[in-house]
Structure formats: structure tokens, C-alpha cells
Amino acid sequence: MKELQLLIVGNGMVGQRLLEELSRMNHVYKITVFCEESRAAYDRVQLSSYFSGATADELSLVAPGFFEQNNIRFLHGESVQSIDRLHKSVVGTQGTVVEYDALVLATGSYPFVPPVPGHDRTGCHVYRTLDDLDAIRRDAADCRSGVVIGGGLLGLEAAKALTDLGLQTHVVEFAPQLMAVQLDQQGGAILRNKIAALGVRVHTGKSTQKIIDGDQCRHKLVFTDGELEADLILFSAGIRPRDALAREAGLAVGERGGVIVDDNLRTSDPDIYAIGEVALWQNRIFGLVAPGYDMARKLASRLCKQTAEAFTGADMSTKLKLMGVEVGSIGDAHARTPGAKTCVYEDGIKGIYKKLIVSDDGKNLLGALLVGDTSDYDTLLQYMINALPLPEAPSSLILPSSDGKPMLGVDALPATAQICSCNNVSKSGICQAITNGCTTIGSLKKETRAASTCGGCASLVKQVLDAELKRQGIAVNDHICEHFAYTRQGLYHLVRLNKIRSFEQLLEQYGRGLGCEICKPATASIFASCWNDFVLDPKLVGLQDTNDNFLANLQKDGSYSVVPRIPGGEITPQKLEVLAQVAQQYDLYTKITGGQRIDLFGARVDQLPMIWRDLVDAGFESGHAYGKALRTVKSCVGSTWCRYGVQDSVSMAIYVEERYRGLRSPHKLKMAVSGCTRECAEAQSKDVGIIATEKGWNLYVCGNGGMRPRHAELFASDLDDATLIRYIDRFLMFYIATADRLQRTSVWRDNMEGGLAYLQDVIINDSLGLAEELEAQLQSLVDTYACEWKRTIEDPEVLKRFRPFVNDDLPDEQIVYVRERGQKRPARAEEKELSLIEQGAPV
Amino acid sequence: MQLQGIFTNAKWHDICALDDIVAGTGVAARLNGEQLAVFNTGNGIFALGNLDPFSGANVLARGLLGDIAGVLVVASPVYKQHFCLQTGRCLEDPEISVPAYQVRVCEITNRILIRAYTE
Ligand code: SRM
Ligand SMILES: Cc1cc2nc3c(=O)[nH]c(=O)nc-3n(C[C@H](O)[C@H](O)[C@H](O)COP(=O)(O)OP(=O)(O)OC[C@H]3O[C@@H](n4cnc5c(N)ncnc54)[C@H](O)[C@@H]3O)c2cc1C
Ligand code: SF4
Ligand code: FES
């Protein structure tokens, strides 16, 4: 059988997607591609990142070897000049002639440059291709200012690029507002303020008459009223479909451009198809990549005669981040539907504007506009696309989150709900892939492409995954491990209610097997939170995690660090002296930590007891840097010394640190106290933050630094000392009772149904009637506190565990150090070998 | 005390008393210039090399004991890979293993004996 020739004109985003879709199917074509640009397909959507660090290679959409592997003839840097429909062949600009059985136009669009006099002066640019950007970059090198003509979505993106290049940037817009296509007047005004605050000068309602030589700059724009000078000019006045080729070949084109296609993406010639931005369907052009991808997919399966799915248009909702300003526009954002009602939330101070467009019966969402905060975008989009019934008071959907916003569970979404609009993946598509064995986000992405383009749907995809796994019983079960069919909370309650104090008993009654490094430390932590028994007790020591096991932090070379408690960061010179002496005597690397204390590194396990004996004698206590326990309570200097302080933050920090020291919890706990609102102790990044006010203390909870920083939330204001401590007691005990293993307060809070309001209800209003019990539990832990290191050095049986070898007292010779900046550090592998050879030790 | 093994060049070496190891934990020991990790699971004694191949530190004796799907294991205290107490095989990476030694407890003296080849 003769091979069928498939010819594709254009290797942009959509043309490339068509090739990928075809390569996933079993097609029968010999494919030829004409690629006009100097580079094969790249991610035009992320074009601007080229100016903020991305390389052309990173933007590429073509996997290395893709064309060769799929036997595609790729004509690089050659455009199609004309189509001969009679003989079914085309001729390229370099003379290549190719015949076709089927031809696909994927020629995209070009930036429209208004024909004002002077538009073609040197130094005038457009913003569409990597080559355009290279030209802009070259030119900008000796420019100080730039102006973007056009204040639409792309114009603002281009303006961002110019500021990235260090130019004083102007935006000139003909309409009276920015982004008139997507936003209403108020939204445009908020956006304008935000962008102006970034140093970009915005000129709306300006019509450019001509461009001439400038006086101070290279160019001068002359408006009907006024003028503006700049060194570089960038046109971004809209796009036009690249339909010239089709036009000349006599194909039907739209009145305002675009190659007319039917629901099968066929042009007026049945052997020629058009997809992407060049295609005009039902008199509409789709200037976004998602509809183009949808066309590519449908055309591929049509060409392979698999299915004949019709193209049915696309939702043009968009969410983007322009110059750090979030903007979202959903559905009928301009409220053009007859009878539509609107509902608006505006915070002029924060620059947030949200608007809902609701059907006249108030039951359905028709559209929405979001400026300054698009966190509600996903939810609102689902309401609109799937015509979900709106809640009683739709306004609750856009009010700030602390006001108990109703959550839209993924379970409420119908199977047809579109989850990823870039790649048109529905909820049922995701569920199908899960059934076929994708149980991780990574494999789902590969299989369905969901969340792989703009990434905006990632959180939703994850929620569907979790819910579906649960439903299909492929349970990502919440059992703590294979030995206990319980959650950590479950185990906690079993331990507390049944007064269980040993792992053997717990295992015998509620578990199976022997336990592991997950359930053992979790149980040890629960025992500590409930009974506060000595952690190195023979019946507990085998349960302790790496660090608790020797009451110190294990380093990569097997040595340990020593971190004594320095409550509130306050330390006497005498105590500093002791630290210095100990550090010198044992040659410990010494460093100030990020938690206002001092870390001594490089102690061998057999040295730990001697070091701690010296420290305990000088009045130091364990700092629990090794435990999932209270770490530090950071403090500023407060009213005692600071001219702004309104309360004694140091005294409060020391009190708090001494009250909660040694408290073991599901994960580590950090706290801080600041003496006034200047907040030098960074209390708003802690699990518990306390900030002084004129009248008392503001309490913040559930902040986090680390991998996923989260600001703490204001929990209660102007508390007196006693109330403050009472709330913290209850809060900590409630966290200990209900959190998952290794769940910081921040994540615990984010997963809490009912959110902050619920937590406040439990802690402040005692809605569960638990307050008294929680306080009593915490008080009993305070009463039974004892320094673990003091206890250890006093107990010869326990000290036995710190011997280097059970049958030899010589320390491990394989821990080797070299010196750097006057202190020791672990030797690297090469250095270590050398030194061992020198020592003559067996290597 | 050294007992003669079945193979002429392999001997049983006395390491320590049974109650030198708290049940559910391990200790480090030296034998012929090698570092060993000797474990008392509470139900049996096992011995592996002490060197953790992933971190290069001599720390396996300080790992947590347990079982994964019935296989007795120690979890490295550094990066938490599991090693089978019986064979020394790493559960995460079957290419990697640590030496495993034969162990017995003398019924009369209650001392732990480990069999190793002497040079
Ligand atoms: C020593 C110190 C770095 C320093 O030189 O400054 C440090 C060192 C370690 N940090 Fe840290 N962190 C130190 C302050 C911090 C801070 C800053 C702070 O507390 O103000 C943070 C961010 C704040 C936060 O936790 O919210 C911090 C976030 C982490 C995290 C990430 C936690 C998270 O929720 O994402 C880990 C990993 C973990 O705990 O799972 C971590 C874990 C570690 C460990 C324990 C890693 C380990 O298991 O070996 C490091 C060992 C210390 C050692 O061997 O002695 N460290 N670590 C700081 C000790 C403070 C102290 O005096 O106790
Ligand atoms: C700066 C910028 C930001 C954008 N941001 C977004 C966004 O956030 N979200 C979104 O959805 N969309 C965005 N877009 C739009 C998106 O890039 C387009 O919708 C998408 O690229 C259209 O794909 P296409 O293949 O139809 O056209 P193109 O990607 O333009 O590809 C067409 C290709 O055909 C080539 N060609 C044309 N004529 C010929 C010929 N005769 N012979 C050979 N080759 C030819 C062209 O050189 C071009 O390489 C953005 C666009 C730009 C410029
Ligand atoms: S937080 Fe306030 S009181 Fe404390 S040091 Fe800073 S300015 Fe002074
Ligand atoms: S919506 Fe863009 S990747 Fe899914």
C-alpha cells in the first residue's frame, strides 16, 4: 500500500502537539513538517521567562531525537510559500516541493502592528518569537526606556519583560482601561494601581498618531493629546491569524481573518485542515493554547480514524500572574447574559477585587473576575463549567478565607467535570487512569498530561487522586504502618485511655509483627506526651528515633552535635565561658544557630556523657534539638532595653520555654516572643507566636518556616499573662492529641475542617468541653519534667550504651577531621583515605 | 575463649555477655580489626557489619530494629535504608549488602559468640 503523505505547515505549540498525539497512535502517514522559525517548537506561553533566566533549551517542547525516532521529515527554517490544491502539493521558500494526501495548517498568528507613520523605524519590535526576544535584548542593551503600545494581556507581559531588562517602562493603551477584553472598569483600575506601584507608567485613553525622532530619547510617540519619548518601542496591539497562504490558495477565510473550519477542523477543501490560532470556528478565533491542544488531539484521532470527536469550542477562562499581579477571568466576566446579577468584593487597601456574575435566579455562576487574588479561581471555574448549584449566599465564595468559606469537595464534581483545561482532562479521565494503575501525581501527569502545562490545576488533580484512591479502596490507607491498623491519633487515644506504657503491650493488644522505624518512634513520642517517662529507660530506648536514641543529633560521619538550652536566647558571660571551655577541650566545631543558641558539633558518642557532665554542672539543660519536641523560644530584647518595647518579651520567652521544655509532640515545636509590633523575634513564623501589645499579648498560631513557609494566624488579642498561657496549654495538648505523625502545626491547621474558627471555638470557647482536661494533661507534663541529660549522666546502667564498642574502649578511628577557618570539619572521603594511610590504620 | 568451628580457619569469637545488649537495641563491637553491629531483638541475636554503605559512617549498631513484611531488619540511623538481619541484604537496593555473621549464645555462660574467619 502506498504510504499516505501528511504535511504539516508550522511547528508551533499546536503543530507540535499534533505530532505528539500522532506518535502516540498507530498512524499510517509519512509526515513532513515545515518549520519557519529558527527553532523547533518551544513553549510560547512561557516566552517571557526567557528574560528572567530560562534558556531556549529549557523552553523547548521537542524531546531530543523526537523527529528521528518518529521518522518525521523536518524542514528546518523553511516556510511554505504556496499551495497547489489541484496537484496536491506545496512549494517551500527554499524550493522544496512536497506532495500531500492531507495537509494541516498550524500557522498560528502574527502580532498586529497598527499602520501609524513611523511604525517601521529601527528600534520598533513585536513580541511573539524567541527571535523577537533576541532582537529586543540586543537593542535594549543601549536603551534606558521602553514603551509598550497595547495594554492587553500580552502587552502587560511584554512590559514586564522590558522592566526585567532594566528599562524604565511605559504602557500606552487606546482604551480607557487596561485589559479591557478580560476586565471591567473597576478591575482594570485596581490592576492599573498595582502595576503603577511596580514603577511602570501607564497611559490609558491615548491614541498614537505617529512616531518620530525624539528629543531626549530615540523615539517620540505623538498622541492626539500630548506625546511620550522612549528608546525602544514594542507593539502589542493584538494578534491576527496567519491565513495568507490559505487565502492565496482560495480557501474560505473569515471576514476579519482566520481559516474557516467545521466541527471536524476541515477547511473548505476536504483534504486541508486548520488548527490552533489560525483556525476560525463558528466565527471565533481561540487565542489560547488549550483550545489549540484540544483541536490537535481531535484532529489526530480523526486522521487515524480512531474516533470522530467533534470540536465543540472552548472555555476562554484565564488565570495569570502579570508582573506579580494575579488576574483571573471566568466565563461571562462582562455580565452580558440577560438578567445576570453581580456581586462584588473589593479591598482597595490590599488591591483585591472579586466579582461574581450569577444567573438571574441566583442558582448558577455565569462568570467571575478576580484581580489581586486568584485563590478562588479553581473552585469558581468548577461551579461555572459544571453548572453546580451555588450556595445560599454566593458571596461567601469570594470573601476572605478566614470567614468560613464553604469548601467545594471534589466529590461534588460530576464525572464530566473538566479538571485540567490546558489538556482537556476530565475527572473521569483521571479516575480511569487511576484504575489503570496510576497512583501517583507523577504517573498521572505522564499518562493523562493533566497538570503538565500551566500547572494551575495541580492541587485539584491531587485532590481527585486522593479522593479516588480512597473510593476505589486502593487505599492510601491512613494506617501508620504495616504493624498497626490505626492512625497516630488512634494510637494516641488507645495509649491514653488504656494507660498503656510499653510497646510490647500495645503491639500485643492492637498490632502485629515486631514494629519498625515508623511505629516505634511514634509510640515513643506518644508515651512521652502521655506519661513523660525517661526516654532512655531500657523498655523505651529501643523505640527511640536516631537522635533521641543518644539524646543528640547524629551527623553524617556518625558523630553527634550538642545543643544546650539557652532559654529566650539569654545567656550569662559565665555560661558562655563554660561553652567555650567545653568546645576547646573536646575540639568541637562551634556555631551560632538560627534559633538563638549555640551548637557544638563533632562529638563522638563516647564523649557525649563527659561533655554533658561539664555542661550540667554549669547549670545547662538539654535543648532537645534532637527531639520532636519544643525547640527554642526565640525572643527579642523587649521593653527592658529597647526604646520601642511595650512588654518584657525576654521574661515571657524564658517563662514559656521553661514551661514547655521537653514537651514531646507529633513534630517539633518552635515559639517566639516579640516585645512590640516591630516583631524582631519573627513570632509570626512560629508554631506559637506571641507579640506584645499595649494591653497585653497577641497570640499567633500555626506558623512555619522550613520547606513550606506559612504565616501564623492571629488567634486571640490583648491577652493577660494567665489567659495567654492557658490558651497555649490547650492549643498544644489539642495538637498533640489530634495531629498526624510528623505533621507540623501548620499542616495540621491547613487540614482542619472548620479552619481557624473551629480551632478558636475549641480552645477559646471550649466547644468540645475539653479545656479543663487538656490543661490538666499539660500541667502534669510540666510537673514531671526532668532534664534527660542530667538523668543520663547519673545512671551508670544507661551510660553503658555510650561505650564506643561493647568489647573495646578505643574510639572509632574512622571518624576523621581536617581543619577549616580555625575549626575542625569532617574529612571528605579522599581526605579520609589519606589520613588513615598516614595513621597506618587498616583501610 | 575461642571455640573451634567446622571449618578449620573459621572460629567462634567471644564478644560480650547477653545482657550487655538491652533487648531491642544493638551495640558496636570489634573483631579482627572489623567493626560489627550486634543486635538483640529480644528473640534472637544477629550480627552485621557496622559500616553503613550509604553514609560511609560506622553506625548500623545504632539503628532501629523491626520487621518489614516479616523480614527482620535494622533501619540505618542516617538515611533509613533497611538491612536484613539474617543476610545483610539491603531491602531498598538488592545490589547492596553488608556482611552478615553467624551468631550463637553459649548456654552455659550466656555469652554471645560470633563466627568469623581469622587471617
Ligand atoms: C542547627 C540549625 C542550623 C543552624 O546552624 O542554624 C539546624 C539544623 C538542623 N535542622 Fe533545622 N536547624 C536550625 C534552625 C532551623 C530553622 C530556624 C528557626 O528555628 O528559627 C528552621 C525553619 C523554621 C521552622 O522549623 O519552621 C529549620 C527547619 C528545619 C526543617 C524543616 C521543617 C519544616 O517544617 O519544613 C528540618 C527537617 C525536619 O525537621 O523534618 C530541619 C532539620 C534540621 C536537622 C535536625 C537535620 C537533621 O535531622 O540532622 C539539623 C541538625 C542539627 C544538628 O545536627 O545539630 N530544620 N531549622 C538550627 C538549630 C536551631 C536551634 O538552636 O535549635
Ligand atoms: C508572550 C505570549 C504569552 C502567551 N501566554 C499565553 C498564556 O498564558 N496562556 C495561553 O493559553 N496562551 C498564551 N499565549 C498564546 C499561545 O502561545 C498561542 O495560543 C499558541 O502558541 C498557539 O499555537 P499555534 O501553534 O496555533 O501558533 P504558534 O505557536 O504561533 O505556531 C505557529 C508556527 O507556524 C509557523 N508558520 C507560520 N506560517 C508558516 C509557513 N507558511 N510555513 C512554515 N511555518 C509557518 C510560525 O513561524 C510559528 O512557528 C501567549 C502568547 C505569547 C506570544
Ligand atoms: S520587637 Fe520591638 S521590642 Fe523587640 S527588639 Fe524589636 S523593636 Fe524592640
Ligand atoms: S489547567 Fe493548565 S496544566 Fe492543567
Structure description:
The complex is a heterodimer of chains A (843) and B (119). By secondary structure, chain A is of the alpha/beta class. Chain A is built from 26 helices and 38 strands. Chain A has a 5-stranded parallel sheet with strand order 3-2-1-7-19, with no helix packed on it. Chain A is elongated, with a radius of gyration of 34 Å. Chain B is built from no helices and 10 strands. Chain B starts with a strand and ends with a strand. Residues 1-7 of chain B have low confidence and may be disordered. Siroheme binds at residues 553, 555, 561, 563, 591, 593-595, 597, 599, 625, 631-632, 668, 670, 704-707, 744 of chain A.
Task: Write the topology of this structure.
The complex is a heterodimer of chains A (843) and B (119).
Chain A: E1 4-9, H1 13-24, E2 29-35, H2 56-59, H3 66-69, E3 73-76, E4 80-84, E5 89-92, E6 97-99, E7 102-105, E8 109-111, E9 124-125, H4 130-140, E10 145-149, H5 153-164, E11 168-172, H6 185-197, E12 201-203, E13 208-213, E14 219-223, E15 227-230, E16 232-235, E17 239-241, H7 244-248, E18 259-261, E19 272-274, E20 279-281, H8 289-303, E21 318-322, E22 325-331, E23 341-347, E24 352-358, E25 365-371, H9 377-385, E26 418-420, E27 425-426, H10 427-435, H11 441-448, H12 458-471, H13 488-497, H14 503-510, H15 519-531, H16 538-541, E28 553-554, E29 560-562, H17 573-585, E30 589-592, E31 598-603, H18 608-617, E32 630-635, H19 649-660, E33 669-674, E34 688-692, E35 697-701, E36 713-719, H20 721-738, H21 745-750, H22 755-763, H23 771-783, H24 788-793, H25 796-799, E37 817-820, E38 823-826, H26 829-839
Parallel strand pairs in A: 1-2, 1-7, 2-3, 7-19, 9-16, 10-11, 10-16, 11-12, 18-20, 32-33, 33-34
Antiparallel strand pairs in A: 4-5, 5-6, 8-17, 13-14, 14-15, 21-22, 22-25, 23-24, 24-25, 26-27, 28-29, 29-31, 30-31, 34-35, 35-36, 37-38
Chain B: E1 2-4, E2 10-17, E3 25-31, E4 34-40, E5 45-49, E6 64-68, E7 71-75, E8 82-84, E9 100-105, E10 111-117
Antiparallel strand pairs in B: 1-2, 2-10, 3-4, 4-5, 5-9, 6-7, 7-8, 9-10
The structure holds siroheme, flavin-adenine dinucleotide (FAD), iron/sulfur cluster and FE2/S2 (inorganic) cluster (FES).
